[in-house]
Amino acid sequence: MDSSDGARPKHVVYPIRSGALIAAILGTDEADFKRWRRLVHDARYLRRFRELHGVRPPLLGFFNDHPGSPLFVPTTGSFGVSAAMRRQEDWWALDCRHGRALLGSKRTGELLVWDLMTGEKQHLRLPPACDENWDYNHAVLCAAGYPHHGDCRSCPFLVAVVSSHQTDFITSARVYSSKTSVWGEVTSIATPHSLVANKPTALVGNTLYWLSDNSGIIIIELDLDKHSLGLIEDVPDDALYNYDGQIIIMPVEDGRLGFAGVDDGLSLHLWARVANIDGVVTWTLCRVIDLENFLAPEVLLGCIYRVEPIGFAEDADVIFINVHPSTYMINLKSMHIESCNY
Description:
five-stranded antiparallel sheet; 342 residues; 13% helix; disordered N terminus; mainly beta; AT5G49610-like_b-prop; F-box protein AT5G49610-like beta-propeller domain-containing protein; 39% strand
């Protein structure tokens, strides 16, 4: 940490065991302790720490909407949720990002923003004009905006609701800010013969992306800075034919939008939207992962449906693959694969 940080301690904290860090802090006097306390809660320091040491937030678990299964499945034994929040019959899992989960009530239709670390919950009413004639998707994110994410839990949050009218084919979006406790103005765009799909959302920079359902594949984008909707209609035919339309959109390296699909040869394909030197944007196949090298033969032989990606943990570079009746998570950095059976 450079000397321009004023009264903050002039140290860089290395990724040692938390107990050792606590002991080091407690060994200081009261004034130093207060400075350390301010430091470890400072968003700029946390960003710098992660940049220097490559530290990513831990993957605590995943949400699951399969009937008869727990709503939240922890991937670490040290993290758990209350029995009320585990009950599948009460809630739908809608989105999860920056340490917060967005859930939807099956009984009342209201939204719930849940801080996974503190357990704090905030209930939201859906904006007006939300009824059964619309298809919906949602997103939750820290309001700090790119590239200022650090200690996101101390920042206000945003909730975006995007909806497509089932007969008029108009797609609209509104954004709720916890800072003002108000839903923003509606922004709309025509999406001919296309409705927002019930698939995972992607955040790239300060833009949210959703897939749509139609005869081809269209991506709906919401620019949070401009509060405007747009469409990406140049998704390659591979997404429809090679993967039978079973793709997810996701952020990829260098702050680009990408998507993933599994072909009939059981290869996981990762695509990225890339601009060439002339500024022309095209989709490029940037990575191929042969799943047969990572999954046991009996797992693949026992799969009775198409193998497909079903989710992506943006903060952890982990993709979830459905190999029915099992689900696996693959760390795209280490290529460690783990079963998510529950």
